[in-house]
Predict the 3D structure of the following.
Amino acid sequence: MLNNFRIVESLDHEHWDKYVYEHPRGSIFHTRHLVDVFRRTKNYCPLFLAAVDEGQQILALLVSVRVQALPNPLGNLSSRSIFYAEPLCSDEPRGVEALSALLAEHDSRLRSKVLFSEVRPLHAPGSEQEALARQGYEHDAYLNFLVDLRQPSDVLWGRLTGSCRSNIRRGEKHGLKIEEVTCDKGVDILYQILKLTYGHAGVPLADKSLFTHALRILQPLDMIKIFAAFHSGQPVGASIVLLYKKVVYEWYWGVERIKSIYPAECVTWHRINWGQQRNYNFYDFGGAGWPHKPYGVRDFKAKFGGDLVNYGRYRKVYSPWMFSLGERAYEWSRKLTNSGKWLVGRRAQV
């Protein structure tokens, strides 16, 4: 017992579920279900830590994932620890203290196995910011778009740019169809498109096991949907979203660029409208880039009338010279990828 709390690596399922669901910042990325998905994914290694007091009350909780982009012996040089949502804690001082201890434990375990750790918040900074600052995590601006789905569908349609609405109409006129394919076939369609998409972008793509296990674990809980765009019977785009606490989280998507078809606009609007019709509260676009860097995906997402937010990101680099070396290795690997005519959108942005 440390300062009247102890650090644990597992929790009773009911206790874990209740804490995440009732915490105002609790998200799908904190759930035991997604931790299980990450645990089964090739080249992913999740770390779950919680701080509990003498009465078994949870004071703080974090979930990170060590993601390895290149095979050994370049494993550590190509690995980072990603928090896909900010860690959770109670607002009182002991909650911040407990989270600070969890972060210190996380850093102690991973500093020799990753180049850096990065926290990707889903909300404006709260009590967790103090704990992150104590442990040397530096905050920088990072953008995102959120669409309030509590508005009528025609209002959401009206918030799209005129060119976006026109492109959607053109796609529909030329026979583009969007279908839900939350099944094994849908995973096959999605992954085939993502391989080409990420290959063009020169960005490492998660192993297919991420999507296979996400389907098997999350589908029975109605926490995942896969949509595909078809033209003349052939898939020309696909996307996968995560669902939790009335929020639709954009996760991965890719489309083929076809003149006059506009599957990117069509499939994105379909996801937004689908969420609105099923009484979800928000559509989270999953990131819109660093504000000081041009980013075509941000320009695309801006077409859909969401509210631009700047919750930032936190990063801690454990070895600056190794980080610099890793960046050079990453850029070198991008040059070896093949090109193609594809557009990418993703939450798990490098």
Summary: The radius of gyration is 20 Å. Residues 275 and 301 are 16 Å apart (CA to CA). Residues 337-350 have pLDDT under 50 and may be disordered. The domain at 144-310 is CATH 3.40.630.30 (Aminopeptidase).
